[in-house]
Amino acid sequence: MKKITLLFLLSIQIFFAQDYTEYLTGNATDITTNHQAGICLMGGASEQDDAMKWFLNQADGGDVVVLRASGDDGYNDYFYTDLGVTINSVRTFVIETVAGAVDPYVLEKVANAEAIWFAGGDQKDYVNYFKDNAMEEALNTFINTKKGVIGGTSAGMAILGSSYFSAEIGGLESDEALLNPYHPRVSLGYNDFLEVPFMEDVITDSHFADRDREGRMSVFLARYIKDNEKRSFGIACNEYTAICVDATGKASVFGDHPAYPEYAYFLQANCTTNYAPEYIVKFQSLTWNRGSEAIKVYKVPGTTTGTNYFDLSDWETGSGGTWENWSVDSGVLTMASGTNPMCGTLSTPGFESFNVEVYPNPASDRLFIKSKTPVQSVRIYSVLGKEFSATLLNNEILDVSSLSSGLYVLKLNSETSEQTFKFIKK
């Protein structure tokens, strides 16, 4: 009887141990560093070393946690020794169940990390294991309270937009999506998972031109507009290309262009009054033309120095790239040269400005407002237009502690005037 009891207990221990597997390289003792916030989006093939060095440098010698649902310790030596950047440790967790994702030990290591990397694989595993539970809370706290650097490749990149292709029913080809925007495989999640600065209303995609994914991304953006009644945005990478976004929203593109066609793509529904798809119906081909300028795309070649960039704080400013116009007619995607949409999201005609001072910038918890003219109303927006609640205390103090890190637009109104400011929340 004792032998049977011992075997039973041993089997229970093995069962729980199979919820996750841990691989540690480096120092097991946690340290604290002056890490910096940031986002690293990798195109899905072998890692772009210069971008990965940027990612590790943001951790400032701290601890890296790799989260994955399959595979093993392939990142450990690569991060710890191969890139020549000093860090304290690399700890990989291969999560195999929801129980593994919410295990207190795993959550503790996630909270203590300075950098978190999502490996490739199948994003539906990340959605199923990490969403709507303690792991989701831990990740969002890491991103927005601790302000650590986060990144991912392929499936790991796919979950970093506020909206995402979940692959819940499997992969999706562009032709399938263009011919039926409501194909069951067009499985999208909207604003219900990770809350990453500068990724609001953004859907990401990897292996982009390499796997002819331009069409399916166009459908993702069209579906977002139809389902949410607001403009949509997308970020995509070719396989060997990476995008590194700093705390101000500057998205630097890394790759080996011109030796190889390594590009990043920043897509947005054109900022015209009528921007929605003309025809988006179940079982019918998509039409989204809008004068052949339905989607504005800034295509940026990646270099080893990351010199070329796009500014996610305004979705207009860039360097080293070219603008394109994309449109879809009866399921056929057309891509042509284009121009900057110049949306002018911060301009408000019909008002005169008044004399007002706002400080500090960047801000941590409070903004102070000095104005000789009484301020009648205060509004705060993300750069993509989402409004946040704002209360002005004693006509001079604005509490911004609840905002996530990123760039915001502050609009102040008197009875006859309006003044607009940009500020960064640290």
Describe, in plain words, how this protein is organized in 3D.
With 426 residues, the chain is of the alpha+beta class. The protein folds into two domains: 320 residues, Class I glutamine amidotransferase (GATase) domain (Rossmann fold); 70 residues, Immunoglobulin-like. Helix content is 22%, strand content 31%. Strands 1-4-3-5-6-2-11-12-15-16 form a ten-stranded mixed sheet, with helices on both faces. The longest helix has 16 residues. It is globular. The chain starts with a helix and ends with a strand.
The fraction of residues in strands falls at: 25-35%
Structural class: alpha+beta
The rounded Rg comes to 23 Å
The parts where pLDDT drops under 50 for at least 5 residues are 1-16, 345-351
CATH class of the largest domain: Alpha Beta
Q: Which of globular, elongated, flat, extended, rod-shaped describes the shape?
A: globular
Q: Which homologous superfamily in CATH is the superfamily of the largest domain? A: Class I glutamine amidotransferase (GATase) domain
Short description:
Helices cover 22% and strands 31% of the residues. With 426 residues, the chain is of the alpha+beta class. It is globular and about 65 Å long.
Protein traits:
Rossmann fold; about 425 residues; 10-stranded mixed beta sheet; alpha+beta; 6-stranded mixed beta sheet; globular
